[in-house]
Amino acid sequence: AEAALRQSQKMEAVGQLTGGIAHDFNNMLTGVIGGLDIVKRRIASGRTQDLDRFMDAAAASAHRAASLTARLLAFSRRQSLDARPLDVNALTASLDDLLRRTINENIALKIVPGPHAPHAIADANQLENAILNLAINARDAMPDGGQLTVEVQTVELDQAYAATEPDVAPGRYVVVAVSDTGVGMPADVIEKVFEPFFTTKPIGQGTGLGLSMVYGFARQSGGQVRIHSRPGEGTSVKIYLPACEGDVAGQSDGPRAVQEGHG
Ligand code: ADP
């Protein structure tokens, strides 16, 4: 019942989003149609001075509409996944420099590898992007400094747990947990964070796409994202990725057939 409720909340969010976009798009089209109409009537009545003004306004409206659809396309375009066995310890360790340059000096960074060199089946570039997105959110949540921890773990999701998560198969997962000691999130924010374009940041600072992209990447990889957060204490975002079958320490990262359709 809880899963069904969550699903219906998600559908409601998608409905609100598409409704909002349709409304904006309609306003832009009204600008174009209205402008053309004025121009047509002015030409018919021989009042051809100042037509540029109306043409420009119509064109500006059309450009806004085009840019809206371009952004939507960029967002919905399925980024191709190059999923293959990936040494997650090595990947997180290699991000040390980049993460240090991303966060502020007053934030301490700790990267904690998991035991037994866990391999996940995932796209390396997308996992890097996801971790970077989470680190940026962590930085923004700690304006007065704090601790950023990137920790790799391996967990077993049993049948009982998987049953509470639609589309998540029981089995072994490699978890990348990105935790901060920042402002945290109230429950009503946590509920909405995976919605595309949801942001609490000032205009120009947040796109509201970070967590929805992290979520999309995890789901496309056959995994999931869990968020634990407490206002005033901090936030931990965990990306679950399917562990590589027959995971062996020192296994190469060479190409390997990936089975489709986890869960
Ligand atoms: P953006 O960062 O552009 O706002 P996101 O989808 O990444 O978009 O995040 C959505 C919202 O979730 C943020 O605006 C913020 O309110 C909240 N959030 C995300 N990560 C954290 C965090 N680590 N600590 C506190 N709030 C967070």
Note down, in words, how this protein is organized:
With 263 residues, this protein is an alpha+beta fold. Helices cover 46% and strands 20% of the residues. The protein has eight helices and seven strands; from the N terminus they run H-H-E-H-H-E-E-H-E-H-E-H-H-E-E. The protein has helices at residues 2-44, 51-76, 88-94, 96-102, 124-141, 159-163, 187-190, 210-220; strands spanning 84-87, 107-112, 119-122, 146-157, 171-180, 224-230, 234-242. The strands form two sheets. A five-stranded mixed sheet has the order 2-4-5-7-6. A hairpin with a 3-residue loop joins strand 6 (224-230) and strand 7 (234-242). Helix 1 runs antiparallel to helix 2 (51-76) and helix 5 packs antiparallel against helix 8 (210-220). The radius of gyration is 23 Å and the shape is elongated. It starts with a helix and ends in a 21-residue tail after the last strand. The relative contact order is 0.14. The model is unreliable at 247-263 (pLDDT under 50). Bound molecules: adenosine-5'-diphosphate. Keywords: Coiled coil, Kinase, Phosphoprotein, Transferase. GO terms for molecular function: phosphorelay sensor kinase activity. This is histidine kinase. Residues 20-245 form the Histidine kinase domain.
